[in-house]
Specification:
Elements (H helix, E strand, L loop, with lengths): L17 H31 L6 H13 L5 H10 L7 H31 L8 H70 L3 H19 L5 E3 H19 L3 E7 L7 E3 L4 H12 L6 E10 L2 E8 L6 H6 L11 H14 L4 E6 L5 E8 L13
InterPro entries: Bact_2-comp_sensor_kinase (IPR050640), HATPase_C_sf (IPR036890), HATPase_dom (IPR003594), His_kinase_dom (IPR005467), Sig_transdc_His_kin_internal (IPR010559)
GO molecular function, one term: phosphorelay sensor kinase activity
Keywords: Kinase, Membrane, Transferase, Transmembrane, Transmembrane helix
Length: 382
C-alpha cells in the first residue's frame, strides 16, 4: 500500500540542461565583451593617428576573432567535468586544466586564425601571435572558472536532491509503519466489540461482522495517506453504524460539519481512533448512555476536527505522561498513532489536544492546515 506526504513540497531533479543553458550564454557574453573591448581599443588607436576609426569594421573583425573561440568550449567543459579542481587531487587536476587551457589557446590561434582571415579579409599580424595566444589563454581561463561554478552548482543541487529524497523516503517509511500499526489495532478492537455481542445478541453480532467486512474492504483499498474529509466521514459513518449495533439507542451521535470543510484533505482514518476513544473510554460503562458529537469547521487557514462526548472524562495529566495511553493494557495506541501521523505529515502545523469538557466529558481537538481537495463521496451531512 503506497503513501504520500504533504507539505514537503515538490522535489524536482536538478535541471539537466542547466549547463547547456548557462555556459554557452556566459561564453557568448564573455567573448562579445572582449570583442567590443578590442574593437574600441582599435578604433581609438586609429583616431589617435588621425585616421578613420572604422567602427563597424573593427567590431566585425573583433567578433569574428573572439567568437571563433567558442568551438573549443565543449572540450573544456568535458575537461572540467573529468578533472574539477577539488578533492581528492586538487593540484593534479589544476595542473591538467592549466595544460588544457594552454592547449586550447594555442589551438585557437593555429586553427581559427585562417578562418578569421578568410571571413574578414584582414591579414594576421604574425608578431602579435604570442600576445593573442596569451589573451586567448586568459579568456579560456575565465571560461574554465565559469564551468567550475556550474559544475559545483549542479553537484550541490544533486546532493540536496539526494538528501531530500532520503528524508522523504524516511518519512514515508515512518508513515507506512504507523499505518501498519493502526489497521491491526482497528481490526482487533472491532472484533473485540463483536465478541461482546456474540452471546447477548447473536443477530446483532452477525450484522456487525458483515458490515465490518465491508468496511474493512474499503479501508484496505484506500491507497493514499490523505483523502477528502467527505471520504473520511463516509468511512467514519460506517464505523459508527457498527458501534450503534453494539450500543443501541443509548448513545446518540451528532454530526456538525460546516459546508466549507467537506472538501478539505485530512489524514486517512484520523477521526476513527478519536470516536473509538469516545465510545470505549467515555461512554461504554455508562448504563444511561450519552452523546458523541463529531464536528469539522474551517478557521482561517486551519481545519478543526472535534470529537466530543459527555461521558466520564479522562485523566488528561496521567495520559499525557504515558503518551495518551496505558502501557500495560495497550489502550491509547490509536491516539498515539494519530498524533505521530499528524507530526509526520504536517510537523508543527498540526496538533491534537485531548481535554476535559466543562460538563465532565472529553473533547479531542485536531487542528490541521486547510488543504482543499475534491469531493469524493456523500457522507452524513449535518
Amino acid at each position: 500500500m503506497t503513501t504520500s506526504t504533504q507539505g514537503s513540497g515538490d522535489i524536482g531533479s536538478p535541471e539537466p540542461s542547466m549547463e547547456r543553458r548557462i555556459v554557452p550564454v556566459g561564453a557568448v557574453v564573455l567573448t562579445t565583451f572582449f570583442a567590443l573591448l578590442y574593437a574600441l581599443r582599435g578604433s581609438i588607436a586609429l583616431l589617435d593617428r588621425g585616421e578613420d576609426p572604422r567602427w563597424a569594421q573593427q567590431v566585425g573583425w573583433s567578433l569574428a576573432m573572439w567568437w571563433t573561440c567558442l568551438p573549443l568550449l565543449p572540450p573544456l567543459a568535458a575537461l572540467v567535468r573529468r578533472f574539477p579542481v577539488g578533492r581528492p587531487r586538487p593540484w593534479r587536476n589544476a595542473g591538467i586544466l592549466l595544460l588544457g587551457t594552454t592547449a586550447a589557446a594555442w589551438l585557437r590561434h593555429v586553427l581559427m586564425t585562417p578562418v578569421v582571415v578568410a571571413i574578414t579579409g584582414v591579414p594576421d599580424v604574425t608578431a602579435s601571435a604570442a600576445a593573442r595566444t596569451l589573451t586567448y589563454f586568459t579568456v579560456f581561463l575565465v571560461m574554465v572558472a565559469l564551468l567550475h561554478a556550474v559544475h559545483y552548482y549542479r553537484a550541490e543541487r544533486a546532493r540536496e536532491l539526494r538528501e531530500a529524497l532520503l528524508t522523504r523516503g524516511l518519512a514515508e517509511a515512518r508513515l507506512a509503519a504507523l499505518r501498519t500499526q493502526l489497521q491491526p489495532h482497528f481490526v482487533f478492537n472491532v472484533l473485540n466489540a463483536v465478541t461482546t455481542l456474540l452471546h447477548a445478541d447473536p443477530m446483532a453480532a452477525d450484522r456487525m461482522l458483515t458490515r465490518f467486512a465491508a468496511l474493512l474492504r474499503m479501508i484496505l483499498h484506500e491507497e493514499t495517506e490523505e483523502h477528502a474529509l467527505e471520504r473520511e466521514l463516509d468511512l467514519l459513518a460506517r464505523y459508527v453504524e457498527l458501534m450503534q449495533l453494539r450500543f443501541g439507542d443509548r448513545i446518540v451521535v451528532e454530526w456538525a460539519v460546516a459546508d466549507a470543510a467537506w472538501g478539505a484533505r485530512v489524514p486517512f482514518l484520523v477521526l476513527q481512533p478519536l470516536v473509538e476513544n469516545a465510545y470505549e473510554h467515555g461512554l461504554a460503562k455508562r448504563e444511561t448512555g450519552g452523546r458523541v458529537r463529531i464536528g469539522a469547521a474551517r478557521t482561517g487557514d486551519a481545519l478543526q476536527l472535534i470529537v466530543e462526548d459527555d461521558g466520564e472524562g479522562i485523566d488528561v495529566e496521567a495520559r499525557a505522561i504515558i503518551g495518551l495511553g496505558n502501557a500495560e493494557t495497550g489502550s491509547g495506541i490509536g491516539l498515539r498513532n494519530t498524533r505521530n501521523r499528524l507530526s509526520q505529515l504536517y510537523g508543527a502545523r498540526a496538533s491534537m489536544v485531548l481535554e476535559r469538557t466543562p460538563g465532565g466529558g472529553t473533547r479531542a481537538l485536531v487542528t490541521l492546515p486547510f488543504i482543499d481537495g475534491p469531493h469524493e463521496s456523500e457522507g452524513p451531512r449535518a
